[in-house]
Amino acid sequence: MPFTWPLDPQDLFAERYPQMTLALPAAEVDAVRAAVTEMWPDRPGGWVYEWSALAARHAAAGRHREAAQAYGWAKFPSLADGPKRTALARQVEQYVLAAPGFPVEFERRSLTVPYRGGTATLPVHLMAAPGLPADAPVLLASGGVDSWKADLHGVWEQLALALPARLLLFDLAGTGETAHLPMTPDGGAEVIQGLIAFARTIGNGTVGHFGISMGGYYSARSGLSGTVDAAVVLGGPVERSFAPGRGFAFGMDGIVGNALGFDAAPGRAEREEAFAAFDLRPLLDLAVNAPMLVVNGEDDVHVPRHDTLVFAGRRATRVELVPDTGHCAISRFGEAMALIVPWLRLALIG
């Protein structure tokens, strides 16, 4: 069972404000910020209550895309209790209602992939520019432990319209609509291997992987092992992020603990034991990687700068630290995407 933990909602507004205002008007975010006084209770002043009230107003007015984004913040940062899970269900409902208005081709489907000796089923979204040929490359893409495929719709839409590739969007194991599977390094990667195998059957056989935040851990893993044809890592933890004694900011200890499948806040020893298995040093010691682009903000409070710079000097790898911004370069996201989009176009198409 998931768990809640002490968390000041105003800390989340302070950190995530640039991300919140990517898809919702600043005035609406400011109004919710002023109304929220506590994190977990589902009552006036509660995080989920106030964000859901905004979402319901958008839904009632037929603004389903905005409603989906607001419900996305209502269930943030973790599906730690019933009201958060209800908010996710409502987000999915509103997102599907919004889909006919998207300026891209969109399909929602369920895929079954191999998982730990059996199978697992997860919802995925396929997105492409209108009229994209069937024999186009496919780009797997995901967010991280707290921002999921529907939350990042604007990013994916921008990519789909800019790239001659079909996007296959999914939630990591332990998160979002894949929260029924705990996040583990091998189990999560096995799910992604199944998605890569599927992706090779629906296009021209060329497959890339773009991961944001913890999604970048898995895209780094795909790229370093050479199991995809190109990989982009944006703010991905790969080595020192999993070292003993690391600290956590803005509630990330509880967010990650829930994704890992703990049913109560883990102690340091439990968490460090779980983290040790994620260290990508064995893959970093190899030289079989696909072409890779590794990007982050230089002032990231979650991922040490080392986890970006460790890729410097590798074969077929470009490394970029965006100045004056933090995790995933979120306050200068346009600059990060200006690096990523042309690199992907060249890597996938040539």
How would you describe this structure to a colleague?
This protein has 350 residues and is of the alpha/beta class. It folds into two domains: 9-99, de novo design (two linked rop proteins) (Up-down Bundle); 104-349, Rossmann fold (3-Layer(aba) Sandwich). 43% of the residues lie in helices and 15% in strands. The protein has helices at 9-23, 26-35, 47-60, 64-74, 82-98, 153-162, 185-202, 214-225, 252-259, 268-276, 281-284, 306-309, 333-349, and strands spanning 105-115, 118-128, 138-142, 166-169, 207-212, 230-234, 292-297, 317-322. Strands 1-2-4-3-5-6-7-8 form an eight-stranded mixed beta sheet, with helices on both faces. Helix 6 links the parallel strand 3 and strand 4 (166-169). The radius of gyration is 19 Å and the shape is globular. The chain starts with 8 loop residues before the first helix and ends with a helix. The mean pLDDT is 96.
Assign the structural class, choosing from mainly alpha, mainly beta, alpha/beta, alpha+beta, or little secondary structure.
alpha/beta
Multimeric organization: single chain
Order of helices and strands: HHHHHEEEHEHEHEHHHEHEH
Unreliable segments of 5+ consecutive residues:
none
Principal-axis shape:
globular
> Given the structure, what is the number of helices?
13
Largest sheet: 8 strands, mixed
Domain unit count? 2
CATH architecture of the largest domain: 3-Layer(aba) Sandwich
User: In what order do the strands lie side by side in the largest sheet?
Assistant: 1-2-4-3-5-6-7-8
Average residue pLDDT? 96
Rounded radius of gyration (Å): 19 Å
